[in-house]
Structures are given as structure tokens and as C-alpha cells.
Here is the input.
Amino acid sequence: MGIKIGILGYGNLGKGVECAIKHNSDMELAAIFTRRAPESIKPKTTNIPVININEAKNWIDKIDVMILCGGSATDLPEQTPKFAEMFNVIDSFDTHAKIPEHFNNVDKAAKYGNKTAIISVGWDPGLFSLNRMYANAILPNGKDYTFWGKGVSQGHSDAIRRIKGVKDAKQYTIPIDAALEKVRRGENPDLTTREKHTRECFVVLDEGADPKEVEKEIKTMPNYFADYDTTVHFISEDELIKNHNKIPHGGFVLRSGKTGWSNENSHIIEYSLKLDSNPEFTSSVLAAYARAAYRLNKEGSFGCKTVFDIAPAYLSAKSGEELRAQML
Amino acid sequence: MGIKIGILGYGNLGKGVECAIKHNSDMELAAIFTRRAPESIKPKTTNIPVININEAKNWIDKIDVMILCGGSATDLPEQTPKFAEMFNVIDSFDTHAKIPEHFNNVDKAAKYGNKTAIISVGWDPGLFSLNRMYANAILPNGKDYTFWGKGVSQGHSDAIRRIKGVKDAKQYTIPIDAALEKVRRGENPDLTTREKHTRECFVVLDEGADPKEVEKEIKTMPNYFADYDTTVHFISEDELIKNHNKIPHGGFVLRSGKTGWSNENSHIIEYSLKLDSNPEFTSSVLAAYARAAYRLNKEGSFGCKTVFDIAPAYLSAKSGEELRAQML
Here is the structure.
């Protein structure tokens, strides 16, 4: 019997978790939980129960880890504490500024229920955070850089879609090579927002909408686009569907640091991801941490944790002996 | 009072640890231990005791963590178990095939002494191992690649120096860009030894030695050079001292993996290091894990561990709260 996983929320992330379970032979999907009408959900896995979220409490003994696949804006702040009382849970909460508050809420709930919760799992926050932390601990005297892309930013795509006259849109965040190269050469540049990334937008207009107006509104939008060099392409709906139907992403975390008695030696640590599917990769990280939550709970390690608190070996299906012999 | 560190062995690695302690404000150097005549050692730190290794047992109460800076061939197999009975210890044991045996010996000793030992710390084994392991856990369906360099291989430089007619030599291991690019493009190539790295040698001859003979002997040396495209440059001793006096190194760990219901999406995880000084960077990793050993021992977590067993937060001088607020 594998680790029994429940998926809460069957959007892109939930579907990705379903695929990730298929790739991990020590896990099995137990049920999908949804706020929608269960009969409207068609899982890829055959014969898998789809259950209304309100029935989850009846599944406490049948689920080892519940992976919460909702959004950070409104779903997770409410769902993670609520479900952490009943289940071991994993979430991908990514509102950086609210992580401490979310952590405290989930910690209280998980300790109350003797459950193990791991929050903010994914690649940023998640693997990028891990790499920032390891690199900082190793090179205390240094400077951090994070670049995102090339990839689709859902938040920025949504912001364009909310503009009057826009039918649909995809926005790509693109790291600027020249800036990346400066960092790699150890120049420790101070980079403005504009110097780090450009933004490229593919926009489908409503009939009769004025492209000049829409372009201006995008390019001057505060926070989202005003501080960037932004390119806007108007394309047909067919083109958008045909050429921009994937959700790639990725990015780079670098730390440039000095060692030696007089800081005479420089070092660059670089971590990068190039992802065809942002949600499927994120889901794969969630699945690995679900294994960790399951094991930690068995050991009696209750409460809320983040990627910083989890010894790497807990993520792997291999034993300590196998890891030392094969991977060290 | 900081974490009191002892350094055992004052070669390149020991000197690197001395520098690393200077960069970590929560650590202090307590003493240097040596097999040489203590008065022959001139530490950079002022007023630091230099002690004969046989006196180490008198320092049990004055050292929180002993960092063992000897070699893997003969020093560490003997020293780490011996000192793990008396001290929390860190070593950089890097004979991959003998790690399981070394682990068992050190584990027994550390448990006997209620001490915490972390072995095989550095970048390979060490940070590279961590990245292999994380990437494997996240993308179970994939392929691993490790490239080393550009950097000085001490073992290969030594092998050249043992050839008759060679006065001195430095050997650089160089990853082949075309192979690296194939991996980055997700082509999952099967690469031979020759396709992954080239070797470049800078050799100073003894007077009267025959360069043709030496070159042939290098290029045909089994295991070390025969399977590689090797370039040999003969230079003067002055040039070697002037242009090849550093010990740079680095490398790349990549995992290429598939996700999706039918493996339809590809992902590349890449980790790389570019190091001006191999020993100083390795020492910086040792220092961070010394912090972890100190804390784990305080928590009563005894025995031998590797980087796989250490939750990342233990490496950082920051608290869990600070890490969540600043780095997640």
C-alpha cells in the first residue's frame, strides 16, 4: 500500500498532482475533493472518487496527506488551517508577505490535530527559497539575485484581461541576458526592475476595441508594467490558442560571494529551472513534500513546517543507505 | 560567545576554514591541531593556540565542533571515527565508493561518545549530492548529468607530477560546452567520458627531459587521461607560478525529467558552481555544517549524518522566523 493522497481542488495544480502521483510508485490517489459539483469533474485516473469538499471530514482515516491545490489569495488562508486540523497537508501558499501569518495559523491548527503541515511548497517559494538559504549560509558575505522566466505570469496575464476591450491575453516575463551575465561574471551589479526583466504581452482584442488605447493602458499600469520595458503584440484568438497554450516558466537564483582572509576569492552559485509546465512542476514538488509530511507525522513531528525545516532525505523514496551509496 | 571551532590539519582546507570562521560572526576559532611541530605553523588569526594532535583529548570541553581537514585516502578513515568519540566532527570524506563503510565506522564512534558527526561535506560530495537528490525526488522520471570544471584536479595534477622528467604540473578539467548544451536542450544524450570533458595540462619539465616522451606518457595514462582528449602545454616554472597559482573549480549538476499523464512536458533543473578557490569554498560549506552539528548535538541528535539528513535551517545563523520572513 502506498501513501494515500487526497487532492483538494482540481484545477491545473490538482491535475498536475494527479500526474505526479502516477510517477511516484509509493503513492496512490485516494480521492479528489472539490467545491464544484463532483459529477462535473472527470479525473484522468480511472475509478477515483470525486467528493464534495464538505464531506472531507469523513475521509480522515482514508487519506495520509491532503494536497491543497487552491489559490493563495482567498482559498489557502482559509483552507490550510481548517484542513490541517484533520489531515497532514501540503500547500503552495505564495504570498510572500503573508507567509509568517499563514505559518502561525497553520501551526496552531496542525498542533491541535497532531498533524504535519508543510506550507509554501513549490519552486518560488520552495526550491528557489532553499537555494537562497543554502547559498547564504555558505557564503555569508555576498549578494543575492533572482530572475524569473522566460515564462507565463498568471497574475500579469489576468491584469491585462481585466482591461476594457481585451478578450484574452498571455504575458511572458523574460530575464534580461545582459544583467544575468553581469551577475555571472561576479560584477555584483545593482539592478533596477527595468534592468532585470522585460515583459512581452500577446493580446486578443474585443471587436472594435482600440489597440492604441489598450497598449497604453497596459504599458502604464502601475506595479504590473510601468517599471518595465513592455512589448505588446495583438494577435487573433486562433493564434493565442495555437501558439500560447502552454504554461512554461522558470528562472535563476544566483549568489555571488567572497571568501578568503581579505575577500580575495569570488564564487558564484547558480540554480536554474526551465519548465515546460509550471503547474506540473510545482505539483511534482508538492508530491515529494507529501512524502516528507507523511513520514514526519509517523515520527510524531507535528505542526507547521516549511522547506527549510525538512531534511532532504525525507523527500526521497530511497532509504538512507541507498542515498549514501547512490547519490552522495 | 560563539560556536568554538577546532581545526584539525592546517593545509589548504584548514586555512580555508580559518577564513570561513572570520566570515561567520557566531563562530570563533578555538585552536588549530596539527601533526607537524606546532611552532612551525603560523596561523593568520592572532593569538590562536596551535596544539599537537596528541593533545586534542585535553580540549574536549573547549571545542564545540572539530573540523577535520585531512585527506580522504589515509587521514579521514582513521581520524573521523577516532575524533567522533570525543568531539562533534565535520569531514569532507570524498571517496564515493567507501562512504557507506566510513559512515558506519563514524556512526558507531559518535553514538558511543554522544557526539554528532557529519561526513562527506563539501560540494561533491555535498552540495552536488543534495542537488542530485532533490532533483531526483521531484522528477522521478528523468536523467542525471554531472559535469566538473573548469577547474584544477589535484589528483590528475599529482599523476602528472609522478611522471619521470616532470618538475611540476597543473591539470584543468574542462566540461565540453556542446554536451552541456545538449543536456540543457532536453535531448537526454548518452555521453561517453570523452564527450563530457577535456583535460588541459600545463607541465614544467626537468632539465633534459624529453617533451615528446612526457606528452605520450600523459596522454596514454589509463583512467586518468587515456579516455579523454588531452592537451599538453610545456611552460616554464615562472609561468606556472605566475599564471597557474590558483585552485579554481566548479561544475554543473543537471536533471532532465518528464511530467504529465503521458510524459508530455520536459523540465531541466540545473545547479552550477564557479569557484575561484576550491578549498576556500569547500571550507565555507564545512563551516555551515559545523553550525548544524553544534545545534543537532544540543538537541541530542547523536551519530553520523550526511547532508541528506540535515534540515537546511540548521545551516543558517538566522532563526526560523527570520528565514520565513526574509528568504522564503
About this structure: The first strand of chain A starts at residue 3 and ends at 8. Chain A has a mean pLDDT of 97. The two ends of chain A are 29 Å apart (CA to CA).
